[in-house]
Automatic annotation (TrEMBL):
It comes from the Bacteria. The chain crosses the membrane at residues 18-36. Residues 398-429 are annotated as: Disordered. It comes from Komagataeibacter medellinensis. Keywords: Coiled coil, Membrane, Transmembrane, Transmembrane helix, Transport. Pfam families: Beta-barrel_RND_2 (PF25954), BSH_RND (PF25917), HH_MFP_RND (PF25876), RND-MFP_C (PF25967). It is found in: Cell envelope. Residues 83-215 form the Multidrug resistance protein MdtA-like barrel-sandwich hybrid domain. PANTHER family: MULTIDRUG RESISTANCE PROTEIN MDTA, RAGD PROTEIN. Residues 123-178 form the Multidrug resistance protein MdtA-like alpha-helical hairpin domain. Residues 241-312 form the CusB-like beta-barrel domain. Its main location: other. The keyword 4Fe-4S does not apply. This is Efflux RND transporter periplasmic adaptor subunit.
Length: 429
């Protein structure tokens, strides 16, 4: 082999160069495809993020207010008259004659009290009266005799005047003794506890042998006293209801209510207006209102709990929205309205009476405004939003179908406010 032949480099064949070229092309295509796919994914994610940044809202239409308003309030039933009976004299209960639940007439004896000390004082007062009367008679006779000697040398005018004045003083002593005896006689009358009016005995806290003190009742071991009896007149009953300030306009002499009590399910007792305090309680912002119920059959008992149902006229000309549609911010009470370009417009509103789940709006919105239901606190003025449908079974108001986010351009109509539940108001497609 020659030297020239040993240093010669072998040349690549044409097929090898073809393979290398094809491999480079395939690698370039793979790299370019990955770059393009990544850019497509980035663009898609950017579009999704931008779309997700736009809030989805449900809109409702304000409705006219109800023609009538209903209000259920707790009430307390009290007797027409109710009187606790205390002892006016000190002594021991000799006997009681009426137990709880007994029907009594005015003046009927409930119990008697044994008062030996008072009896002795009464006897002494009568004796003092007899003594004063005897002294008065003697003074009158003496004054009469001295007057007969008036103008003679036997007595002076001074002595006559003294005897006449003594007779007048003895007369005053008689009047004092008479009043003292009358006072003890009145106390003797209080030995009998009597019913002040026709009614029923609602409590008896006295028993035979109990010690009672004047002006008090049965004395306990701690020295406190309670009433001996309680008597209630239940031919008519008073019903006391605390009416909230928002509903104070329903109070008038024409006000009527339906009273129901737990012991008579399904029964309704008609109550009529009797009086109102005409002043609100500063702590509860309620006004005490008194109704009256006839109780001829004695079915209602004092101190019962009752539910009172009121029906009052409403104002259909005032628009209402659910409570959840209101937003309270530094600018005041507002609602979020969606304009024709699907942008948020925050409007200040004047709130009227709270109807429970709905609230009257006196000013700030119109009947055709699309109002955001349950708006989030992050909604801003002029912010773009998408309208969505109602969630089935939650706020679709009985709708049989619902969907999630609604793309721009879809036909979404605002749903009217529900009359009974603000949560029922939603959006129907």
């Amino acid at each position: 082999m020659t030297a020239t032949g040993e240093n010669q480099t072998p040349r690549m064949s044409g097929r090898g160069r073809l393979y290398i070229t094809l491999g480079g092309i395939v690698l370039a295509v793979i790299v370019a495809g990955g770059i393009i796919e990544r850019r497509v994914h980035v663009a898609h994610l950017r579009a999704v993020a931008q779309d997700a940044a736009i809030p989805r809202v449900q809109v409702i239409l304000p409705q006219q207010g109800p023609k009538t308003r209903t209000l259920d309030l707790p009430g307390n039933i009290s007797a027409w008259y109710q009187a606790p009976i205390y002892a006016q004299v000190s002594g021991y209960v000799q006997m009681w004659y009426k137990d709880i639940g007994a029907q009594v007439k005015a003046g009927e004896i409930l119990a008697t009290i044994d008062t030996p000390g008072l009896d002795a004082q009464y006897a002494a007062s009568k004796a003092n009266f007899d003594v004063a009367m005897a002294r008065y008679r003697l003074a009158v006779i003496t004054a009469k005799r001295w007057r007969a000697l008036q103008g003679t040398q036997a007595v002076s005018q001074q002595e006559v005047d003294v005897q006449v004045a003594n007779a007048e003083a003895q007369q005053a002593e008689v009047e004092a003794a008479r009043h003292e005896a009358s006072r003890y006689a009145a106390l003797i009358g209080f030995k009998q506890l009597v019913a002040p009016f026709d009614g029923v005995v609602t409590s008896r806290l006295a028993d035979v042998g109990d010690y009672v003190n004047a002006g008090g009742g049965d004395v306990s071991s701690r020295g406190t006293a309670t009433e001996l009896f309680s008597v209630a007149d239940v031919h008519r009953m008073r019903v006391f209801v605390s009416v909230p300030q928002d509903y104070a306009d329903i109070i008038s002499p024409k006000l009527e209510g339906d009273v129901s009590v737990p012991q008579y399910p399904g029964r309704v007792f008609k109550a009529k207006f009797l009086a109102t305090a005409k002043a609100f309680n500063a702590g509860t912002r309620t006004v005490t209102t008194e109704l009256v119920v006839d109780n001829d059959k004695r079915e209602l008992w004092p101190d019962s709990y009752a539910n009172v149902h009121f029906v009052a006229p409403g104002d259909p000309d005032i628009l209402i929205v659910p409570e959840g549609a209101l937003v309270f911010r530094a600018q005041g009470m507002q609602v979020a309205v969606v304009d024709a370009d699907d942008r948020i417009r925050l409007r200040n509103v004047t709130v009227g009476t709270n109807l429970g789940t709905n609230v009257q709006i006196l000013a700030g919105i119109g009947p055709k405004d699309r109002i955001v239901n349950n708006p989030s606190a992050g909604l801003l003025e002029g912010q773009k939003v998408y309208l969505v449908g109602a969630t089935q079974g939650y706020n679709d108001a009985g709708a049989t179908a619902s969907r999630g986010a609604v793309d721009k351009g879809d036909d979404v109509r605002a749903m009217p406010v529900g009359d009974s539940n603000a949560g029922d108001a939603g959006v129907r497609q």
